[in-house]
Amino acid sequence: MQSDTVKRVIEANSKDRFRLWWAAIKLPMYSVAVMPIWLGSAIAWRQTGHLQLLPFGLFLSAAVLILVWLNLSNDVFDAETGIDRHKYHSVVNLTGKKEVIFGLSNLCLGLGLVAIMAISWWQQDATVFVMVLLCCALGYSYQGPPFRLGYLGLGEPICFVCFGPLAIAAAYYSQTQTWSSSILPVAVLNGLTTTLILFCSHFHQVADDIAAGKRSPVVRLGTARSAQFVYGGCIVFYAWLVASVVWLEVPWPTLLALSSLPWAIYLCQRLHHFHAVPEQIKESKFIAVQLHFWSSLLLGLGYVL
Ligand SMILES: C/C(=C\COP(=O)(O)OP(=O)(O)O)CCC[C@H](C)CCC[C@H](C)CCCC(C)C
Ligand SMILES: O=C(O)C1=CC(=O)c2ccccc2C1=O
Fold it and tell me: What pTM was computed for the model?
């Protein structure tokens, strides 16, 4: 149900409506779906010398569809708890059609899983399907009833495991049908930056989260300590990258990913100055998306070059 304020904002002029829909779609966020597939396939390509286009294309499409499901169903479940009542760019608030959006989200999930099933059928091996199904189950547990683990502050570990080891191992397996511990350094790096995005998404929502009883990590730690946590996370990321090249046989061209450093510095500085000013840091998750995009793109290039 739309509150009066949401209705008034949504009935605003067409330029504002465009802006709200653009924010609702969150296009840049879709790099989080693409990068695990890119990285798992890049590592496989370096080891086998070729890329299997069919599983690569199917996995990419499935990952995007699954992310559409995750985001649309997130808006539906958040509409049920009331936590999104000030989120004008929620697709449910914009359309006022919760059931339709729920149906659409489930259609995307179904299509995504069919694409993954096609990989497993082609390989006559259910491993990739089981791994992606596990990711989806964990994604559901983050936001859907009766679990809503995100409300307990457990979203970050789930996010790390899904977008790090699970998704990258599944993408690697879809190319090679084998396991390899060589994916682990990169899985940690991609898991870290994706989790950083989720962590940063909480800063500007603290008041609404407290009102709805959501104990996000930023609510638990407070915004000042959370900003320090982001700083620590960035240091761990770059230290792990360099250590992986020095000690874990990760190819040295992956150090190209160091050139994402300006995004990390910008993010840390913004959060340091404005951690408690929602208007100033509401875009911080998209700064983290830039950090994730460039670091993961260049890491993968480091394997392909
Ligand atoms: C939907 C997510 C965050 C939004 O959270 P929130 O409700 O706080 O924010 P807004 O309402 O303000 O937008 C992301 C949650 C991620 C989740 C913990 C893990 C999902 C796992 C995926 C299903 C994995 C897909 C992997 C793919 C590459 C196969
Ligand atoms: O809307 C958001 O805040 C997020 C959406 C999303 O799909 C995602 C995926 C992985 C990590 C973080 C996030 C978000 O924060």
Answer: 0.95
